[in-house]
Design a protein that fits this description.
The protein contains twelve helices and five strands. By secondary structure, the chain is α+β, with helices and mostly antiparallel strands. It has a five-stranded mixed sheet with strand order 1-2-3-5-4, covered by helices on one side. Helix 3 packs antiparallel against helix 4 and helix 4 packs antiparallel against helix 5.
């Protein structure tokens, strides 16, 4: 059972219990006062008609419906007859029936309309009490019966507001669940797109590096076989070339495999992961790579993961394309956070490379955007390359 259904059931039970007790009390009081009075039949007839209208309204009339106001007018006339008809000498307890109507009103109509109806009820019983009972006695009875009417009506209104609050909470919960589901779907779609992009990049890398090396190895092997009979002295050079190509292919495969490792941040953090990657990287002969670290603050896992992948791609580009002698990574782990990868290689035109569909550079920009950092690449032919990734300031993130 949901919280709403439970609250509705509690309210209905309390409502029917209060209405039933009031009606039973009025009925018993009527029997005690009019059992030997010929008007007993008239009183019971009006009370029976009140009960029939009450049950009919509960079963068939919806909240805010025009018929509900018609019902209220009829019920108000019935109770007024019980109070104002001269043959009914004892009339004060009939005013309790207005409490039943007050409970129905405050559970069905707006607060403003409900207050107007309650004022009408109090005016009807107040006029009778004050006119026929005197000022003091009439005021006493008005306060007594009026407080009961107002109290039960207020309880009904408070229960209604609680139900509405529960409905709003459940509606908000459903909206949040729907939004969360959409976010999960978005995250899943983004993850799948990321996998597709990664596969495309790896396919491009395999085609541009490993496949080309293997193709060159095939041509070199064929050349060596042809020279074996014609010019055996030149076979040694071909075998040396073949060995060089094999080493390059192995290095490329090692690089691609290292990029497939999902969690380089499992232990030791970003600094440890970068040092391990530099140590494991098959660097070309004559290339030196250094890592400098300032500060000791820890970055969130996702940011550290993204920076590692960017640094990894930058180092791969240096190894494969830069023909550099020196390269350095400078990691600044303090406000402002940033990392720089610099080499003294041949350089390139960054804009031309991006427009040419260089997947590695595009991936670096995407990873920086995903973690909320800025990436700036400075390079030119013959002038080396500097890749700087820095964390956005809080003002920039809000903008």
């Amino acid at each position: 059972m949901t919280a709403k259904r439970f609250a509705d059931r509690i309210y209905q039970r309390v409502f029917f219990l209060a209405a039933g007790l009031i009606y039973a009390a009025v009925l018993m009081r009527t029997f005690l006062l009019y059992r030997d009075n010929p008007v007993l039949g008239q009183v019971l007839g009006l009370l029976l008609l009140f009960l029939i209208l009450f049950l009919t309204e509960m079963m068939f009339v919806r909240r805010g419906n025009l018929w509900f106001h018609v019902y209220l007018i009829l019920q108000t006339i019935l109770v007024s007859l019980l109070i104002y008809l001269p043959q009914f000498e004892d009339y004060d307890y009939f005013s309790l029936l207005f409490a039943v109507l007050g409970m129905q009103i405050m559970s069905r109509v707006t607060r403003k309309s409900g207050v107007i109806w309650l004022l009408i009820f109090l005016a009807l019983i107040g006029y009778k009490f004050l006119r026929f009972e005197g000022a003091l006695e009439g005021l006493t009875r008005l306060l007594l019966f009026g407080s009961i009417i107002v109290f039960l009506a207020s309880y009904s209104f408070a229960s209604r507001r609680a139900q509405e609050a529960t409905d709003n909470s459940q509606s908000l919960m459903q909206q949040l669940q729907a939004a969360n589901q959409k976010l999960e779907q978005y995250a899943d779609t983004k993850r799948k797109l990321g996998v597709v992009r990664e596969r495309q990049r790896l396919a491009r890398e395999l085609h541009d590096s490993v496949t080309q090396n293997i193709f060159s190895m095939t041509l070199t092997t064929q050349s060596a076989l042809l020279l074996l009979d014609k010019d055996p002295k030149r076979v040694g050079a071909q075998l040396e070339r073949l060995n060089e190509l094999a080493q390059n292919a192995m290095a490329e495969m090692h690089t691609l495999i290292s990029e497939l490792r999902p969690e380089p941040m499992t232990s030791g953090g970003l600094v440890s992961a970068l040092r391990q990657h530099i140590a494991d990287q098959h660097l070309p002969e004559g290339l030196s790579v250094k890592l400098n670290v300032d500060g000791e603050r820890e970055l969130p896992h996702l940011e550290a993961q993204g920076l590692f992948r960017i640094a990894q791609e930058a180092l791969n580009n240096i190894v494969k394309h830069a023909n550099a002698s020196n390269a350095s990574m400078h990691l600044h782990l303090d406000t402002p956070f940033w990392i720089e990868i610099i080499d003294d290689g041949s350089g390139f035109d960054p804009q031309q490379a991006l427009e040419g569909g260089h997947i590695g550079l595009a991936g670096m920009h995407e990873r920086a955007e995903e973690i909320g950092w800025d990436i700036i690449i400075h390079s030119a032919p013959g002038e080396g390359t500097r890749v700087r990734v820095e964390k956005k300031s809080p003002i920039e993130e809000r903008v």
